Task: structure prediction
Amino acid sequence: MIGLTLTMISEVFVGLLLLLGAVFVLTASIGMLRFPDVYTRMHSASKAGTLGSGIALLALALHSGEFDVFSRALAGIIFFLLTTPVTAHLVAKAAYSTGTKPWKGTVIDEYADSMEKNSDHK
Result:
C-alpha cells in the first residue's frame, strides 16, 4: 500500500483547487492587460476573476474543516456570484453612457439597438 491517507488526498485536492483558482485569476489579469477596450476587459475580470476567487474560497472552506470558516467562505462565494454580474453590468452601462466606444473589431452593438428601440416607443 502506498500509504495515502484521507488527509493527504484532501490536501492534494485543496492544492489542485488553489492552483486552478490561481490560473483563473491569472487569466483574468492577463485579459485586463491584453484586451482592447473596457467592455472586454470588464468581461475578463468579472468572469474569470469570480470563478478564480470562488474556487480559492472553496479550497479554504474544504481545508479548514471548521464550520465557521466553511460558512464564511460559502457566504463569500455567494456574495461574489451575486454582486459581480451586477457590478460588471453597471460598469459597462456607465462606460457606454459616457460615450466610451467599443473596440473597432466589435461586430454587434446590442445595447445601441436596444436604445434605438426604446427611443422609438417614447
About this structure: The domain at 1-100 is CATH 1.10.287 (Helix Hairpins).
